[in-house]
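Bug report (template v2)

What were you trying to do?
Predict the complex of my protein with L-MYO-inositol-1-phosphate.

What happened?
Run completed; filing so the output is reviewed.

Input:
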Amino acid sequence: MALAQQLEELAIDIAREAGELARRRRTEGVAIAATKSSIADIVTEADREVETLIRSRLVDERPGDGFLGEESAAERGTTGITWVVDPIDGTVNYAYGIPVYAVSIAAVSGEPEPSRWKALAGVVFSPPTGEMFHAARGAGAWLGGERLAVNAEPSPAGALLATGFGYNPATHASDLARVARVMPMARDLRRMGAASLDLCFVAAGRFDGYFERGLQPWDHAAGALVVAEAGGRFTRVELDDIPGRPLFVASGPALFDSLLATALGP
Ligand code: LIP
């Protein structure tokens, strides 16, 4: 079996175990452990516990791999493979009891930096629905055993799009201006609060496209590969107004250029 598919299989197994822990902790009640970049950017005890479980399983199964996770210190590996992990993507949803959150696990080779890594495997597991989105480089994108494909063309009614907003209120005005620019090409807009699922929904044809600024590497590492393996396009564009807060766009090929140009604006 190719390395990418071995990594995918391992990620599926770990994501399922980690997702069950997250689901169980949610039923027991969720405690906010701390805030990070802003008062709205929270981390729960479950985020930390789930990432610890994922990291421990990976060390056991693949000692020497690197790790880049949302809730713990990055570690460079010696094997050329780095795991990019969001233990609970959609943390605010999770804390409020909104059943839209996912465990996102990706394996990349090369430099563990989004503009330079080569994604080999990506898994996004949704505990509330039991849906396991997964992809290995060159082997297609899947929802369980169902092959995924992006929508070839948006409906004549317009594109069903998704977006998100960061935790920093200072950026909300420009984010809302972007929404106003994009709406004329949309039939409607969804704001789910979990980038990894937004991306997998594009891959599954549930959304025609998705755009958002300021995602972290662990938010998009797995979902972007699922989009690409489903025949979609994904890009990350650094913008001059706020360095370090790139714009991300994903869609099927027919919509991509117009969505990117409109989201970028004049
Ligand atoms: C979240 C993303 C979401 C974005 C939020 C946040 P987290 O990740 O999945 O798309 O709008 O601002 O970044 O913090 O729940 O892992």
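What did the reviewer find?
The chain has two domains: 3-147, 159-264. The helical segments are 3-28, 45-61, 91-96, 172-182, 195-203, 217-229, 253-264.
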